[in-house]
């Protein structure tokens, strides 16, 4: 009688183990499926879903850059954003837009700010734009172009400074970027670059005061 009971207990224990193991396997399968569902878009040739034409800066117009000039990503989840890089287009707004739409250009920034203060977004902030000439900086920064030439201070209008400052302040708030010159830099300050923009005539003191004021006001 005792032997039969022990055999029965062993059968019950084995059955419970099998059931428990199956449940654990099923649970693991669900977790694995959920993980794959979350990460599937990172496979080569797969694009993370996003709303077509959506912008990160309210009031910006959307004009898409060529896919050859940026890399699909999911920032800040895959690459943390802790910098803004300031550029000058060395040309007009339309020519900059055309260049960023050209797959042979191999470069583009997230934003272009016009002399009239209007903002054009060409790459989502979650994607990596090829704008800084340095892969590490590209992955960690948002690039803001400004319409004009580095040797013409009249190109840097009041409307441009004000709009760019609001744009930069919003980026800083979204990602917790400090409003200082260590984290808001010129293209010329990126290691390894051969660019000189935004140039000596860009008024950094004025710009940083405007960014700080806009950052405080948005709080």
Automatic annotation (TrEMBL):
Record CDD domains: PGRP
Coiled coil: none
SUPFAM superfamilies: N-acetylmuramoyl-L-alanine amidase-like (SSF55846)
EC number: 3.5.1.28
Keyword Transport in record: no
Chain ranges of the N-acetylmuramoyl-L-alanine amidase domain: 71-199
GO MF terms, alphabetically ordered: N-acetylmuramoyl-L-alanine amidase activity
InterPro entries: Amidase/PGRP_sf (IPR036505), Amidase_domain (IPR002502), NAMLAA_amidase_2 (IPR051206)
Catalytic class of the enzyme: hydrolase
Alphabetically ordered keywords of this record: Cell wall biogenesis/degradation, Hydrolase
Protein name: N-acetylmuramoyl-L-alanine amidase
């Amino acid at each position: 009688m005792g032997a039969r009971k022990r055999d029965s207990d062993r059968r019950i224990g084995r059955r419970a183990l099998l059931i428990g193991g199956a449940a654990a396997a099923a649970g693991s399968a669900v977790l694995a499926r959920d993980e794959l569902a979350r990460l599937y878009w990172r496979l080569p040739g797969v694009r993370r879903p996003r709303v077509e034409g959506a912008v990160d800066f309210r009031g910006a117009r959307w004009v898409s850059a060529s896919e050859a000039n940026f890399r699909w990503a999911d920032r800040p989840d895959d690459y943390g954003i802790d910098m803004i890089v300031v550029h000058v287009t060395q040309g007009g707004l339309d020519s900059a837009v055309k260049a960023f739409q050209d797959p042979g250009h191999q470069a583009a920034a997230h934003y272009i700010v016009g002399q009239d203060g209007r903002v054009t977004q060409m790459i989502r902030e979650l994607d990596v734009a090829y704008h800084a000439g340095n892969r590490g900086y590209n992955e960690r920064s948002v690039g803001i172009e400004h319409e004009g030439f580095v040797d013409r201070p009249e190109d840097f209008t009041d409307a441009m400074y004000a709009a760019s400052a609001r744009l930069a302040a919003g980026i800083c708030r979204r990602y917790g970027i400090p409003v200082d010159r260590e984290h808001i830099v010129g293209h010329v300050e990126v290691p390894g670059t051969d660019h000189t923009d935004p140039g000596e005539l860009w008024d950094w003191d004025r710009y940083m005061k405007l960014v700080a004021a806009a950052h405080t006001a948005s709080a």
